[in-house]
C-alpha cells in the first residue's frame, strides 16, 4: 500500500506529524531495503512514535492520504474484470481502511498490522498484535498463502515497491511480482520483478485488454 497505492509511507507521515520523522524514516529505509528484520524495524518505529488512537485519527484528518497517480484507474479496471483486489501491507489497518474505502476495496480484503490501544480517553499506545502475519519478517508470503487458501485463487500477482513484496514470490506464495518504482525506485526490487513499471497506466492498459 505504502509507496504503491499511496505516494508516501504511512508510518513516516505519522512520525513526521508527531515530530519523529527523521528517526523513523531511517528505520523505514532499512526495512524496505531488506537490511533488517521487519519485526525489529516495526517495533523500533512504534516505540519511537508511541501513537495513540486519537493522534492517528488527527493525522488522518490533517494529513489525508494522496493516491498514487493511476492507481484508482487500475483498481477500477481490475474490479471491472472481476479480479479480487487485496491490500497486504506491513502498515497499519487503522490508516489503510480509509484508503481501501476510497478505492472500493472491502475492509475484509485488508491484511495489515493492528495497533493495540489502552481503553482510555486518548487510546494510549499499548503495542501491536504479533499474531498478524504481516508483523514479522516473511509475513507477506504467509498473508498471501492465507488469501489463496481461503479464497481458492489460482493465480496471485503481488504488486509493490519493496523487498518484502518480492518475498511473496520468492517463497512461492504469489505467482508473479509486479514491481512498482513510481514513488521509490529500488534496484533490488527491479532485479526481482517479473515486470517493473513506473506508471500504473501501463498496467491498466494491459488489464483492459484482457478477455
From TrEMBL:
Gene Ontology CC terms, in alphabetical order: cytoplasm
Top-rank EC class of the record's enzyme: hydrolase
GO molecular function: L-phosphoserine phosphatase activity; magnesium ion binding
Cofactor: Mg(2+)
Pathway entry: Amino-acid biosynthesis; L-serine biosynthesis; L-serine from 3-phospho-D-glycerate: step 3/3
Keyword Metal-binding (UniProt): yes
EC number, UniProt record: 3.1.3.3
GO process annotations (BP): L-serine biosynthetic process
Name the record gives this protein: phosphoserine phosphatase
Lineage of the species this protein comes from: Eukaryota, Sar, Stramenopiles, Ochrophyta, Bolidophyceae
Amino acid at each position: 500500500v505504502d509507496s504503491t497505492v499511496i505516494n508516501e509511507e504511512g508510518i513516516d507521515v505519522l512520525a513526521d506529524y508527531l515530530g519523529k520523522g527523521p528517526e523513523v524514516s531511517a528505520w523505514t529505509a532499512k526495512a524496505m531495503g531488506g537490511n533488517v528484520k521487519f519485526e525489529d524495524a516495526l517495533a523500533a518505529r512504534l516505540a519511537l512514535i508511541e501513537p495513540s488512537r486519537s493522534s492517528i485519527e488527527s493525522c488522518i484528518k490533517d494529513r489525508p492520504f494522496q493516491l498514487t497517480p493511476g492507481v484508482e484507474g487500475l483498481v477500477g479496471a481490475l474490479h471491472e474484470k472481476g479480479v479480487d483486489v487485496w491490500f497486504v501491507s506491513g502498515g497499519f489497518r487503522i490508516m489503510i481502511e480509509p484508503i481501501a474505502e476510497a478505492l472500493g476495496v472491502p475492509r475484509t480484503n485488508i491484511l495489515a498490522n493492528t495497533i493495540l490501544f489502552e481503553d482510555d480517553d486518548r487510546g494510549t499506545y499499548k503495542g501491536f498484535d504479533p499474531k498478524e502475519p504481516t508483523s514479522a519478517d516473511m509475513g507477506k508470503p504467509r498473508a498471501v498463502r492465507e488469501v489463496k487458501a481461503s479464497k481458492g485463487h489460482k493465480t496471485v500477482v503481488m504488486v509493490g515497491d519493496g523487498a518484502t513484496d518480492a518475498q511473496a514470490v520468492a517463497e512461492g506464495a504469489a505467482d508473479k511480482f509486479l514491481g512498482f518504482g513510481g514513488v521509490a525506485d529500488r534496484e533490488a526490487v527491479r532485479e526481482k520483478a517479473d515486470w517493473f513499471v513506473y506508471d500504473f497506466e501501463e498496467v491498466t492498459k494491459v488489464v483492459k485488454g484482457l478477455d
